[in-house]
Structure formats: structure tokens, C-alpha cells
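Q: My collaborator sent me two sequences in one message, no labels, and asked for predicted structures for both. Can we handle them in order? The first one she listed is below.
A: Yes, handling them in the order given. First sequence, followed by its C-alpha cells:
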Amino acid sequence: MIFREYDFKTTLINRAEIEKVLGISIPNKEKQDGHRAVKIDQTKNYDNEDIKQVVTAKDEEIAKLKAEIENLLKSIDQSKSAVDYKKHSIHGHFSDNFEVLFKISKLIAEKCDPDNPHSYPNKEQIREHVKKYYSDSKELADAFYKIIIPEKVKNRGRPPQGVETFKGF
């Protein structure tokens, strides 16, 4: 026998020639699956009335979903308009206390790390800040503390060594 070098990258193999040379039959799954798919598609006949009913049902469903989307978008717009940060108002109500609340919240947000509960001010620090800049009311300062400071921070305990704590306003 003589072997020749042959470039297999450019050679195409024909299924019929292989079957003829080897004397076997190679099953062609792709062809069989294609015939099955055609048979399935041909077994069910659709009437125009059936198609029209399906289309109208889907159109009604689309209309309901569009209405639901519009309602959700309206509720999102209403929730966005509940708090006006520029005017320091909630649902259109304005007071000096709201303004102080927004200012203190902004200061705390700028200076505190949400992942470090010890970076938040304690009740005494908020009382001192409110007394110094806004009001002598201890109850008002305590209310600001309750509203602004997260619950996980209120139960933080003593700070461990090396952890940054609140440095002041």
C-alpha cells in the first residue's frame, strides 16, 4: 500500500459515498427530525376563526398589561414626588423642623460609612449639634436621632480598638 499526504482540511466527506464504500447505512438523525417536525406541523390545521380568536385574546391581554404598566408608572411618579429635597417638604408640607431634619440627614450621609455603625453620631452628639445650631429642645434632638439613625447603629455597643468613630459635625 502506498500512503499519500493529503490535506484533510479542504476535503468534504459525502455520506452516500461512505455508505457505498463501506456497505453500511448511516442513520441521518437531522433528516429524520426534520420529517417529524413537518409531520407534526401538518397534522394540525388552523381555521381562520381560531386564529382570529387567539389574536383578539392576545390583544386584550396586551391592552390590560399596558394599562397596568401605566398605573405602576403613575405610582412611581407619586412616590418620587412625596419628598422634595430642594424645598425640604414631605407631601407638600413644609416646616422648619423638616428643614433641620434634611440638613442633619445630609451631614450624616456625607460623614458616615453605612457599613460601619460606629461612624454614626450618638444621641448626645446629635443633641449638642441641634442645641448649638437650631434649637434647645432635647425632645426634638431625640426625635431626629430616632428618625435619622438606623436601628443597627442604635444597638452598636462600645467601639472596638482601631475602628473609626464619629468625629463630629
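Q: And the one she listed second?
A: Here it is, processed independently of the first:
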Amino acid sequence: MERGLAITPHSLSFSSNLVLRVHQIRFFSLPCASGTKVHVTVGHTTVMAKATYFYHKAHVASTTTSTTASTSPPQTFDPSVEYSYLAVLDPLTCSDQAEISTPRVVFVLLQLDREVLCPPRSHVVCSRLDTDVNKHVCRIAFHGRVDAVIENVATSVRIGKVKERRGVVDKTLDDPAVVIIKEIFRKETNWDVFRGLRVQNVRTKRVGQLDGPFGKAGKVRAVFPNDDVAVPGDVVVLRFTKILFQDKHDRSLGQSPTIYNDQEGSATTFKEDKGSTGGNKSEGGSTSAALLASVECEKKCRTGLVERLKGETATNGSNPSVIAAGLFATAEEAAEFIGAQVATDAAEVGYVEALFGKAGKVRVVFPDGGTFAKVGQTLRLFEK
């Protein structure tokens, strides 16, 4: 039986980018990572789409204040607002049921593999139809009504992803307010886009400003308040927000007034990705799980998912490699982390071997006996 839509000529156009508010299905038990594909059903049409999850910053404020004084975040998408990137949308758990009455406003940008006819406020159902049908699990992840049909993602959707670089105070100059920072940029980095951004001394918590390059080895000069006594070896952090999908010619970076507060960009409510776009990479190869656990608190962490298993499955059930999704937003970003360490929940340690496609996916190899991780399980990438 053929199905279709009866419409007035030219009353609808084909669309390939949709934004909707996420309403999760509580029976769906798998996490959903940004950058992974979902099956999108609009009307009688089902098509694959890349999903990017994001939320309003007001959500963090409303969940950290008293329930009587908090203000609910906006319930509909506003293209003029800058939203926060959400790396992984966790499934609803039993403990979440008591919080369902509190608005948990999450949106998703769906970049469809092909255009579809989408009437205004259409009801959209997003599923994971690639899961094993023999496991008898819910495969409908979430649903929602279309809030916006996007023609140009670069100009109509502002999703800010918090990124972080860390360096070390190399030395101070005659003026005690001026310090030289090393290891925060590579020598080939075009650091002009970082000029004037604020940095924080982790030990003293004082905030200074990047002033200019120092030499040709990637070192930079920063100015701190006169009462901030920095010493060589102090860790300095540069935290900023990069807008996803922006034009390649628009390399501007942003910093909110509260970006160095503990609350902003934290992973207390959402698993916010605060990975670095540069700096030193971890070396490829194997390390012991005990060593990885001991330094975990000193590293930044990206969270992704096992999208599929690769290689021949061994007799003990392990696989030599997996395809990871959600660790990176783009292939360009992923290319900077070739060789970085990745760990499973079972403390199996591998490394990023190569890119997989153009959507930020990577192939992760586990050289010491493979991995027993399954599709949908969490992966974590650690950085120094």
C-alpha cells in the first residue's frame, strides 16, 4: 500500500535539518551520543539522521537553585539564543522518575540523510532500529514536535561547546604581573583567535588575560593582577566556548563572565564535554588500568559510545577494535587526537588509531587482548 501527503501546491517544502524538543521514552535503556545516527520517522517517512543534543544554560541555573525561586528554562527553540552542547543524553532511570515533574529541557538538531516533507509542528519519532530485535528491548528513544526547520545550520543554530586547554607557568618577568606560559599552544598554532581571552591560575584561582606570543616555541605572555603571585610550575587553564557548525572563516571564540565558575560546563547535571582542541596528545599504546585510574582525576575526559564492533570476534568473545561515536563533533577535531588513550567501563585501555568517516567517528584499537565492550556502552578518552 502506498502512502503520501495531499497538500496544496507549494504549501510545503522539503527539509533536511530539524530542531525539536526531546521527550525521552522511559523504557529506552541506551544512552544517545551526539554525532550518532538515529532513525527519524516523520509522517509516513523514515530516514536516518545525525543527532546533536543541546540544552539551554538556564537549565543548569534552575536545577541548582531552590525549587521555589528557580525559573524554568524556555520550552521552545529560539535561534537567537546560544545553547550548550550535550555530549551524551543519558536514559531515564528509576531514580529520574521523581524528577520528571521538573522540566528537563533538551533539544536535538537532526541532520537528515535526505530531504523529507515536514508540515509545521509535525510529530517526530526517533528510534534505534539497529538494535538487536531478539533482545526484546524498547527501540524508540524519544519523540517531539518540530520547533524549527533549518535551512542554514551555520547561521540558524548556535550551540556552544566548552573546550579547555592547559599550560604551565614557565617563568615570570621583571614585572610580577606578567608571566610566560608554555605547553598551552603548539608552535604552529595560529593563536590570534585566542588573543585577549582570559586564563585562570588553578592554584590561586586568579584570572588573567592572554597578551601576546613569546618567542616561536608556542609560549605566550599573560597578564595577571598585581596581587597574584604566580610561580613556575603553576597550572594555567584556558577555557572557552566554540560555536559548532560555524563558517570556517568565522573562528571567533567566546567566554562568558562565569566560565571559570565551577558550575559552568560542569558534568553534575549533564555529561558536558569539556575536551581540549589542542595541547599535548597522549601517546598511543597500552598502559595498565591501574595507572589510568590513578591519573584519571588529573585529566580531562571526553565521553562517547561504542557504535559498532570491528574485527573478528575471538573465541573468548572479545573484539580487537570498535568504532566510537560522540567523542568528537567533527573529523577535523578527531584528527588532533590520533593516538589518545581510550578506556571502557571495565578499565580496558586502547587508543584512537584512525578516523572513521567524516562525522567525528574514530576507530579505537585494544592491543592487549581486545575488548569485551558491547554496542551502546560508554567509552572515555583521557587527555593530559
